[in-house]
Amino acid sequence: MRVVKMVSRHKLCGLLVLGGAGPLALFLYILAWAQNYSATTEGLRSVHKHLDGLSDTGNHTLYLAQQTDRMTQSSQGVLGQHIRHMCHKLKMLSDKRNITNPAIFDHILVDDRFKVLYCQVPKVACSNWRRVFLYLSGKVKAGSLLDLKLSDVHGAYDQHLTYLSDLTPEQIHYRLDNYYKFVFVREPFERLLSAYRNKLVGQTSTAQYFKEKFGRFIIKRFRDKPLAASVKDRMSRDLVDETDVRFTEFLHYLADRSRQVPLNEHWAQYIHLCHPCVLQYDFIGKYENLDADAQYVLRAIHADHLVTFPARGTTYRHNRTADYLSHYYGDVHPSLLRRIYRLYQPDFLLFNYSVPSNMQQLMDRT
C-alpha cells in the first residue's frame, strides 16, 4: 500500500452567487465586505502614519510585517466566511468527524514539529512547499531549499515526508483540530494550461510519462483529423509532433462525461484534492500573491527565521502561464470553454475567482 501511494505522490506536484438567499442576505454580506474593506483601508493609512514616526529601519520592517499580518488575518476571515457560505449553498458542507476514509487526506502533508498541515495542489508551487517541509524536517542535507533537486523532492525524499492519510483516525482528528492548516490555489483556467504544457507537451521525462499514461488514450479518443496548418503554426513552439496531445483534445478529455476514472491530481478540482467544505483552513494562499502569502505562512508557523520561500524567478525560467491564456484557449470552441468552466465552477465560486476578462470574451463568442 505504501509503495502504491508513493508512486502516485511522486507525480504530484468573484462573483458571489447568493441566489435564493434573499435581498437581506445579499445586503448583509455586502455590508460585511464593505466594512472589512473600509477597515483595511483605514488600517493602511494608520500603518503609514505610524511609520512616519519610526526612525529605525528594523523597526519599520517589523512594524510593517505585523500590521500586514493583521490585515491578512482580517481578509482571511472574510474569505473563510465566503467559503463556508458557498459550501452550504452548493450543498457540499460536511463534518470532518463523519470522514471514514483516510485516503481523502492523501494530499495533506504533516509536520509535527511546527504543528502544521499543508494540502498539496499540483501546479500551485507544491514543489517548493515540499522543499520547505523536507528542509524543516532536518532529514535531508541541504544548504538551501534550491539545493534540493526536483527529481529528489518528488522521488527519493518522499520517504521523509509524513502524510495525514498515513495516520490513525485518532491521530488524524487530533491534528485536524489542533494544527495550522493551509492550502494554496490558483486561477483554474491558468492552472489547467500550466498542467497541459508541463505534462503533455514536449520531450521531458515527465511529459513522456504522462503522454504514455494519458496521451495515447486522449489522442485515440478525441483526435479525428490532422491539425490545420494555421493552428499548427501558432502552436509550433510547443507541439513537437503529432504524438503531443493538442490542447483542445485535453479539454475534451476533461469535459467527457463518459470518463469513468477520476481526474489526475494535476488537473483535479480543488474540492476533490483538499476538501475545503470538510476542513476549515486557517490560511488560503493565492498563487497570484505567492511570495507574500508564502512568507505570511512561514511567519504564522514560526519558521520564517529558518527558511525563506523561493521567489518565483529563482525556480521558473519560462514566461508566466497567464501570458498564454488567449494563445491557447483562443482556438477552443466557446461551448467547450463553457463546459470546462462548469466543471471547475465550484473552485471558482469557493475561492472567489472571477473568470479572467479575456477568457470571458472567448466564452461569450457565438
TrEMBL record:
Main location: Golgi
Example GO molecular function: sulfotransferase activity
Enzyme Commission numbers on file: 2.8.2.-
Domain of life: Eukaryota
GO cellular component: Golgi membrane
Entry keywords, A to Z: Carbohydrate metabolism, Glycoprotein, Golgi apparatus, Membrane, Signal-anchor, Transferase, Transmembrane, Transmembrane helix
Cell cycle as UniProt keyword: no
Compartment(s): Golgi apparatus membrane
Pfam families registered for this protein in UniProt: Sulfotransfer_2 (PF03567)
Record's bilayer topology term: Single-pass type II membrane protein
A Gene Ontology BP annotation from the UniProt entry: carbohydrate biosynthetic process
Assigned protein family: Belongs to the sulfotransferase 2 family.
Protein name: Carbohydrate sulfotransferase
Organism: Pomacea canaliculata (Golden apple snail)
Lineage of producing organism: Eukaryota, Metazoa, Spiralia, Lophotrochozoa, Mollusca
